[in-house]
Target: Biotin synthase
Amino acid sequence: MDLLNTLVDKGLRRELPTRDEALAVLATSDDDVLDVVAAAGKVRRQWFGRRVKLNYLVNLKSGLCPEDCSYCSQRLGSKADILKYTWLKPDEASQAAAAGLAGGAKRVCLVASGRGPTDRDVDRVSDTIKAIKDRHENVEVCACLGLLSDGQAERLREAGADAYNHNLNTSEGTYGDITTTHTYADRVDTVEKAHAAGLSACSGLIAGMGESDEDLVDVVYALRELDPDSIPVNFLIPFEGTPLAKEWNLTPQRCLRILAMVRFVCPDAEVRIAGGREVHLRTMQPLALHLANSIFLGDYLTSEGQAGKADLDMIADAGFEVEGAGEVTLPEHRVSAGGGCGSHAEAGCGSHAEAGCGSHESAGCGSHEGGAVCGSASVAPAASAEKPADARTDLVAVRRRGAGTDLAPNA
Model:
């Protein structure tokens, strides 16, 4: 296929595809999905070999968020039956992080629900970072605390944070349809604050909210312009009790095409499969490793993920290897350009590349979970969207173990 040959050539040279080329990837048929994966896989291997970086989430404060992100189980007015607790103490968070690190994670992502941290919250998180790094000197720590005020990114950096995550989630054009409590520009501002403070920026998206192909391309091109080291790709987890509970718009093939498009547009950035991979990729998760070079190990913020051992077995069976603590994540040209953590392995960050929260289980509001943005009104499905897959509500399991509980975590 001429399109794929062109995209591989551009990816190997770090040349930006045209918008039409990016849209064409999303428009390919299910019959061509293996060809798409094979092509994007060449670009992934060029910059990241067969390494898979493992990241581990610690939900420092769960639920009761004042933001109205439509996708999020922690949102204002959410009826989802999730764990709710206030700030973990530093030693509690450190113990939770230790489980993920023992499972092979090299980055710990510290996430807290809310619009953004107070100065007292920054102090709390700073104490938590110290507690973790006192026990695990070379671990990378990424914070995901929502919108940052002036000076807070610098304080987190001084406390030892390597990266900061804040997702754009969706395109600027549709952002107002899914959140009412903050703006797209607020999100961009926080990513820029993290960059300016010397933190490795992590920013990504949420797919599956009913957005169009054009919206997906818009947000990925916006991310390329912001140039984060790490791009988490979340797939909406349609939690019962949230406005987007009925948005089951993804198939495994659709997810693979989205990941491939992100890889072609951002060939040398860390692409992480974040929230929703077990729900939407299902048995096709191993194919996604040919596109993304990073995943979360174990559970997410408010939902349970695949068993940690199953993650490790999947990586090995697919012919990949877990990235070691001493390995540098990002390609040399990004490191030499000052790309933060991905950069210098000995700096502790190993790779500033990911940033955490990508997370909020899914991206979200500065934090939140499933996916996409904050807001109350759901996005109307695009006319070009594929026929939704059957709802697999059985795959959405609320987290009942790990941080905030007396049960051992999944790692």
